[in-house]
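Entry 12.
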Amino acid sequence: MANKKPVILISGSDGGIGSAIVAELIEHGYRLSLGSMDPKLLVEKFGPETSDRIYQPFNAFERGSAEAWVGRTVETFGQIDGLVNAIGFGVRVTIMDDNDEGLDKLFEIYVKTPLRLARLCMPYLEACGRGRVVNLVSLGGKRIRNVAVGYGVTKFAQLGLTHAIRTYGWDKGIRATALCPGWVKTSFSVKSPTLKIQPHEMTQPETIAHLVRTAIELPNNAAMAEMLVNCEFEDVF
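Predicted 3D structure (tokens):
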């Protein structure tokens, strides 16, 4: 790490926020391992693979997919210094929906997959002495403001997961951060039925990307366990 920028894994790297994070880290010279259901989307967005950037097919619903991704990353770069979980999933499950399948998928995306990736990356995060895990949690993991219980409950769980990783990794030099924005302007969020502000009033993906890099670059003695980001006024939790 003395001569080269850290190696960062990013899930959800072809999404609105994920793509902004990738662009931010590319601009600042990071080496990246990007997971996507369709790596062709990554080629379209960021060009072909380079010596500093690889694209890996990644399906969060296939357990072996995570092992293959982490394995190829270590084989290519010899190290892993950070993990950013930016993957998202659009199913809506409300209080009165009898939709166990949808709820199970939300738990897989927001809890089991980030945990699985963190577990696989942990030995390498520890080895580097300043490993970083950043989970894109959302303010939905801090308070409930609508009946989309599936999203809210799994985001609360993801926040708890982040603190569990932080607790486990602290003495090993690993710092975990839960990044919790409100509305972020993406093609998905602007179509939300619960949106009550204009798209231009929402936080921009590039701002979130900058905060992710901040969390990665902060020293071990100035870590931020949670970053709450507001685009509308509301109480602090």
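Annotation: The first strand starts at residue 7 and ends at 11. The CA atoms of residues 64 and 92 lie 26 Å apart.
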